[in-house]
Design goal:
231 residues, alpha/beta, eight-stranded mixed sheet, 31% helix, 21% strand
Amino acid sequence: MEIHGFQKTTLLDYPEHIASTIFLGGCNFRCPFCHNASLVLSPANQPTIPEEEIFKTLRKRVGIIEGICITGGEPTLYPGLVSFIHKIKELGYLVKLDTNGNNPHIIKELTKNGYLDYIAMDIKNSREKYSLSCGIDSFDISRVNESVFYLLSNPVDYEFRTTVVREHHTKRDIQHIGEWIQGAKAYYLQSYKDSDDMIQTGLGSPTKQELLEYKDVLSSYVQNVSIRGID
């Protein structure tokens, strides 16, 4: 496992739990608004943390933190992910996986083995505009679609989430996403925030009013809709 970051304590990454976050490098998407560009574009140039060092810390923190978030990059690219999470579960931790959903077979294997307690899956855009927002020309949506409908069958606790970018998302796009994930338990709109580690610069954030309008649109399709990243 190429571990490029380790946040020992977070109150934000795992809903309702005190957690640690592990950052893996590499991704099969090139989302223009990605804020972990260095992990996506040049993971080999980033410092790594030995796996044993991570587990040494996790063993010490049993009873202090409740869960482990695994994010990236895209964690499901790693052949060793299943065994890695198995070792985390042996310590008694809850595990949350952040994923773009493009490897549904890995998601299914992990959930069927009981290795995941929560999945946060990104919905980049409406199906019609997925290529724009995942950064892949003529993107085949089928595997992402498979992951969406698998999570809708409630194999494990989950959320869908979309980073909303002014240049990428319209009210119509948001409605189409709602139709796509209709019946979902939880969906979060996240306001795009600029940083110094972006794949593409010059993108803009939606206004608070726009996000509130999008939330109203989605409430017809999703049980619980919330907004992250606004005051």
